[in-house]
Amino acid sequence: MAIRKVIQIGHPSLKAKNKSIIDFKSSVIKKLIKDLKDTMKKNGLIGIAAPQIAENYLVFVTHPRNTKSRKLGKADKFRIYINPKVTFCSKEKHIVYEGCGSVANGNLFVPVIRPIEIEIEASDKMGKRFKLRCDGILSRVIQHEYDHMYGIEFTEKISDYRKILSHEFYVKNIRNSKEQTKVSKITKIEYKKLY
Fold first, then answer.
1. Which of 39, 48, 90, 91 is the most buried (most CB within 10 A)?
2. Which is the catalytic residue, given 145, 156, 168, 190?
């Protein structure tokens, strides 16, 4: 198990250019994926990108799951996205409160408008390309982590600065609220191998 430090907003790695992965058998990349998985779980996150542990590669992982404090209904399995590219975003959007491991010290949750449904193409850890179309919290966490690939923090997408919340208020009043739960519900996960 390799738990890495999640760097905080302002660190130059969060804005640096990220490199494509070419050698999928590289021990560096294999270790990076394991570190991302372990760090995400240890910090109670549902997604994390390589730049958040100061590794500037085009890779992130997701694992939206039910926990003692987070009730998602349908969860998803652990997924790896290498050299990702979002290929579709629905015109319909909604607002959901988001947090980020890289602003954990600030304990902030903010309203962010994002497309409800997206489609992404990426490679798995073996270098095989796949396509994933999804909605709910899976769509949202993919978009959030995908932004990290291009140096974009969720704080740059706040829809209303008057509605920024502390972690404590978010947990008590928003996280498992009817509205937040409704827009976070995963109703679509369409996975297809490409080659």
1. 48
2. 145
